[in-house]
Amino acid sequence: MPDLSSLVAFGLIALGMVLTPGPNMIYIISRSITQGRVAGMISLAGVVLGFIVYMLCAAFGITALVMAVPYAYDALRFGGALYLLYLAWQAVKPGGRSPFHVKALPKDSPGKLFAMGFLTNLLNPKIAVMYLSLLPQFISPEHGSVLLQSLILGSTQIAISVSVNTVIVTLAGAIAVFLAGRPAWLVAQRWLMGTVLAGLALRMATEARR
């Protein structure tokens, strides 16, 4: 299994990414605000299924990649760093919009909520790039089964995402009201996350291959 330092580092990156606004967060928040917490949790369940599909595909694909082309790590490392820089820019770019500023939406059935959560995640290219570019950086063949390490890291990312999004679903309405009249808070949050992601990108690009 992954060593503790790799697991912690990957967990911190996963936390930074789940806190960065994206399609999944926006969909979950919009449904939580307009249709209630239950709708938000159903939407989150669909998102989780999308994560599981990506995790399994990436785990088996990464296993084959590591066994066949070990030096692909370097290409993936730089790809992961570029992806984190992209997320940092998305967080701080001018004209960015808070995910808590949503329009009123019509109510959907539980089945549609689940399906839309699943499709929102499955069709989100950021998730595919995350599993392909970031996850391999924290896998060391000398620590045992590459497949097992991939599944453990993927499960860690899913657990962190579920935990954070559950809190968001629970507090979405209250947070939206709180932030409505406090634009400075939104700017500070965006710059904080952008700085953290840029720092992680620099670390990933400059550290030696495992």
Structure description:
The protein has 210 residues and is mainly α. The chain has one domain. The chain is built from eight helices and no strands. Helix 1 runs parallel beside helix 7, helix 2 packs antiparallel against helix 3 and helix 3 runs parallel beside helix 5. The model has no long low-confidence stretch (mean pLDDT 78).
Topology:
Layout: H1 4-18, H2 23-35, H3 37-68, H4 72-92, H5 110-122, H6 125-134, H7 146-180, H8 183-206
Helix pairs in contact: 1-7, 2-3, 2-5, 2-7, 3-5, 3-6, 3-7, 4-6, 4-8
Features:
210 residues, mainly alpha
What's a quick, concise take on this entry?
The protein has about 210 residues and is an all-alpha fold.
In helices, the fraction of residues equals: over 70%
Work out the count of structural domains.
Answer: 1
Give the beta-strand count. Answer: 0
For the sheet with most strands, the description reads: none
Distance between the termini: 15 Å
Query: What is the count of DSSP helices, taking H or I runs of 4+ residues?
Result: 8
| Helix vs. strand class | mainly alpha
Cα radius of gyration in angstroms = 18 Å
